[in-house]
Each structure stands twice: as structure tokens, then as C-alpha cells.
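Page 37, continued from 36.
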């Protein structure tokens, strides 16, 4: 590996970028940087983030070259890592992904169900284009993709580009949940071994083993049923996005042997309705990659003109990630 790395963040207009840039400045000891570039097709949206980045690096890491651009040739030339976090269709389409299913009485979510499938189909064209463009300029670059729905994008890229072996598709939700479980139990979860399966935003912890080999899942479920669930960063979140205690109790009672990943954008499930877990024959996938990132909370509401139907869980084919 080179002594200093060149990184480009695709989706540089995202409001999550300041946190990523700050994290890069804090970890120069393990990820030494030569150049950081933001790239976005929306110059107006990217401009304030880019100007923030200029000030941040000038003050904290003046030895790192920083810039932002809408020119893909400038963005992808001579890079070592590409961090990709695009949203094809923007928030306007995300709103439709979540509200249209609700209008039909089905859960609205950006990674699973009808909304997740629609988002995945939109994302695939742009993701394939990004990979091909990167390869034309930097054949050996690693592409780290955070674009949702991560599992669908991963599956699609493998189908379209079967010989592509330098793309990693990552979702931080299981890691964020591990931190949250650590807060509930008052222990360091980095010393545990989780067994997880399912889609991002729709998965389960089957086991979480401590150093002595004891499974912590029953303890987590017992605590959640009595006290409810709060994420590790609950105080910093919009309180309307937090999962109500009755919902987590219902989920705990109806899933006796597993911990579902409680994602904030599924709070539209009524707390009085029981959930039906979908059986799966997939072998559990052990988590081995730890990624620190911010969770993206969202809350969906029905349009005033929509019929007031009770949302229900739709059956979704599970894929191991």
C-alpha cells in the first residue's frame, strides 16, 4: 500500500459528508492521506459541503490536498479508495419509495419491500456506471459502497460485473445495533462474536457470544421487553424517530429466539399489531467487518389523502450479506 492515499467521496453533496470528513482527519494515524476529493453531479448542493471541507482540512490537516468537483475525470484519476454514497432520484424519490407502499397498506422502507426494490432498480444503473468509470481511470482502486439497498446493489453488481473483485458493499446498521446493545447491557461489545443474517435494515442477530461463549441474545431480549430499545446515540436523535417501547416489546415476544434489527424508519408499524417472522433456511453470516458510520434516521407518514390502512409486513426474500 502507498504511504499516503488518495480518496474520493462520490455523493459529495450529502449532508453526511462533514461527519465522514471529520472522521478522516481524526484517523490519519491509520489512514494517512495525500488527497481527498468530493464528487457530485449537483454542484449547488455540493458547494457548501466542499467549502466546509476546505476549512476543516486547512485547520486540522493542512498537509492533505482537498478539493471538490463535478468532473468525473478529475475525481477518479489516480485514486486508491472510492467511498460511494449516492441516492439516485434524491429525497423526492425516497419519499415516494416510503409513502407509496404505505398508501397500499404495506411497510414503506428504503431497503426492503416495494420501496427498497424500486430504489435498488434506480441505483443499479448509476452504480454500474460508477464502477466502470472508476476502472477506466484507476484500475486498482477499492470501491467502498454505502449506497442502499446495499444487499440488492451487491447482488446486482455481482451479476453485471462478475469479474469485479474490488467492490465492498457495507451497511453500518448491524454495527450500530451492537453499540446500542452494549449500551443496554453496560458492556464492551467489541469483545463479543455476533451471528447475523438477512438484508440490511431487515435482518436478525441469531446469537451474540461473549468471551466465555455465553449467548447474550436472551438477555438483550429480556431487557428490551421490560425497558424498550434506545440506540447508542439516542440523545442526539430526533425523538420522533425512536422506536416506541410497546413495539419493541411486541417484537421481542413474537421473535423468541432472535433479535431483529430495529430500524428507525419502520416505526409506522402499530404497537398493537403482532409481527410475523418469516422463516428462512439461509445459513447465518458472521460479521467480520466493523465500520463506523452515522445511521440515517427517517420517518414516513401517510399522505392526508391516503386511506388509513393498517401497515403490514410484506414477505421479502432474504439474502445473506
Amino acid at each position: 500500500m502507498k504511504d499516503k492515499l488518495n480518496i474520493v467521496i462520490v455523493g459529495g453533496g450529502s449532508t453526511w459528508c462533514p461527519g465522514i470528513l471529520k472522521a478522516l482527519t481524526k484517523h490519519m494515524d491509520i489512514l494517512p492521506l495525500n488527497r481527498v476529493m468530493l464528487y457530485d453531479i449537483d454542484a449547488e448542493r455540493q458547494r457548501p459541503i466542499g467549502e466546509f471541507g476546505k476549512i476543516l482540512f486547512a485547520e486540522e490537516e493542512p498537509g492533505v490536498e482537498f478539493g471538490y468537483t463535478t468532473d468525473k475525470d478529475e475525481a477518479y484519476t489516480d485514486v486508491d479508495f472510492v467511498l460511494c454514497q449516492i441516492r439516485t432520484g434524491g429525497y423526492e424519490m425516497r419519499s415516494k419509495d416510503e409513502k407509496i407502499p404505505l398508501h397500499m397498506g404495506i411497510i414503506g422502507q428504503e431497503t426492503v419491500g416495494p420501496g427498497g426494490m424500486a430504489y435498488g432498480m434506480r441505483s443499479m444503473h448509476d452504480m454500474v456506471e460508477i464502477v466502470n468509470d472508476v476502472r477506466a481511470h484507476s484500475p486498482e482502486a477499492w470501491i467502498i459502497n454505502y449506497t442502499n439497498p446495499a444487499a440488492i446493489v451487491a447482488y446486482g453488481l455481482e451479476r453485471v460485473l462478475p469479474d469485479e473483485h474490488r467492490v465492498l458493499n457495507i451497511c453500518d446498521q448491524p454495527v450500530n445495533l451492537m453499540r446500542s446493545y452494549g449500551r443496554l447491557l453496560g458492556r464492551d461489545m467489541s469483545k463479543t462474536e455476533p451471528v447475523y443474517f438477512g438484508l440490511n435494515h431487515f435482518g436478525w442477530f441469531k446469537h451474540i457470544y461473549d468471551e466465555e461463549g455465553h449467548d447474550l441474545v436472551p438477555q438483550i431480549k429480556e431487557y428490551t421487553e421490560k425497558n424498550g430499545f434506545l440506540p447508542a446515540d439516542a440523545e442526539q436523535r430526533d425523538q420522533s424517530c425512536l422506536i416506541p417501547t410497546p413495539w419493541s416489546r411486541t417484537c421481542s415476544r413474537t421473535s423468541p429466539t432472535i433479535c431483529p434489527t430495529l430500524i428507525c424508519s419502520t416505526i409506522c408499524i402499530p404497537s398493537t399489531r403482532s409481527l410475523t417472522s418469516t422463516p428462512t433456511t439461509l445459513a447465518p453470516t458472521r460479521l467480520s467487518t466493523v465500520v463506523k458510520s452515522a445511521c440515517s434516521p427517517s420517518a414516513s407518514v401517510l399522505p392526508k389523502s391516503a386511506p388509513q390502512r393498517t401497515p403490514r409486513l410484506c414477505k421479502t426474500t432474504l439474502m445473506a450479506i
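The longest strand covers residues 202-209. Flag for discussion at group meeting. Strands lie at 5-10, 33-39, 65-69, 81-84, 142-145, 167-169, 193-199, 202-209, 259-260, 285-286.
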